[in-house]
Model the fold of this input.
Amino acid sequence: MSKHSFYQTDSAVTIQIPVKGLKKDQVQVQTTDSTLHVDTKIPSNGSDYALDLELAYPIDSSRTNFTVTGTNIEIKLYKRQAIQWLCLDAQSTVTKALPPVIMSRPLIEKAPSYPSSSQRAKNWDKIEAEIKKDEKENKDEMGDANAIFARLYRDSDEKTRRAMNKSMYESGGTCLNMNWEEVSKGRVTCEPPEGMEWKKYDS
Done:
């Protein structure tokens, strides 16, 4: 079965399915605002090919279009929101685990780097200042913890994102650590608010 891949802008997702020798009238593409179905036959061996997806985010199905080249089926899905798709499938653990990240605003700062302890403090000050500024200007976007997490996650490099995910997961959501050098050394423990104690939930 041919593997599919995709790339995106803030307004559309383009899916590529590598199948050679097809004509457009040999391919059927159907979408709703939340699903995608592709059906064709692979010319090289005559086998059926079908792709069925429950999409990660809503699309405008009235604008869906596709083209067939000598080597690919290319399907263009138009987003309802300018959200970065980490994968196509709504059932993916990646889609479920991470908050949506808005693509429409360009990144200004580079991901933080920590060559020394003094540099770390300086970068944390910048992050805190940016969060406070966004909270005032964009209360709807930055008004809760998920939005702040998404803002930090969007502006971070791969190691920082890995540190954020690991620390939040292992601490039960009580500790956010963006320093992979620290987080990678072992399990992140739960840190309840002052005056409270952590108790394991028994169902």
